[in-house]
Structure formats: structure tokens, C-alpha cells
Amino acid sequence: MGGRSAEAEKQDMAWRLIGAVVGLGVGFVARKAIEYGWRKTTGKEPPADPNSLETSLAEAIGFAVVMGVGMEVTRIVATRTAHKRYQAWKSVARKAEQVV
Question: In the prediction, which pLDDT does 72 show?
Fold first, then answer.
């Protein structure tokens, strides 16, 4: 009844798993890189708790903007790259199946 094939569902689930693993790994690395960049640029540790009143408003907002933009850009680039690689791999696998 207009449903997707079992093969399409299986490939979709595989991509979701791959995307989740890529997202977690890239997120961890991006956060560490942004924190390192913050330390090198400002000479101070990144705010552990931006909501703390001991952290200035400008510093809290600055860190939030840098972290948010940096994490999202990294996620988009990594996910798109992984998706392209996955599509290329699927194409090669299909061609190999046709040869056999």
C-alpha cells in the first residue's frame, strides 16, 4: 500500500546509524577544537557554566555564539560528506552485485 521496500528501509536505517555515529564523533572533536580555540584566542578557559553570574554576559553570549555556530557548521559539513561517501559506497556495491 505505497510502503517502502524492505531494502529501502534497511538502507535508511543503515544511514541513520552511520549519521548518528558520525554526528557524535564530530561533535566531540568540534567541541574540543572550539574550546582550544577559545583558550588560545581569549587566554581564558571557556565558561564552564555560561549561566553563572560569575561569567560576564558578553563572555557567556560570545561563547554561546561561537559554540553554536561552530558545532552546527561542523555537523552540516560532516553529515553531508558522510552522506556523499555513503551514496558512493552504495553505488559501488550495486555495480558489484550486477557484475556477480
Answer: 92
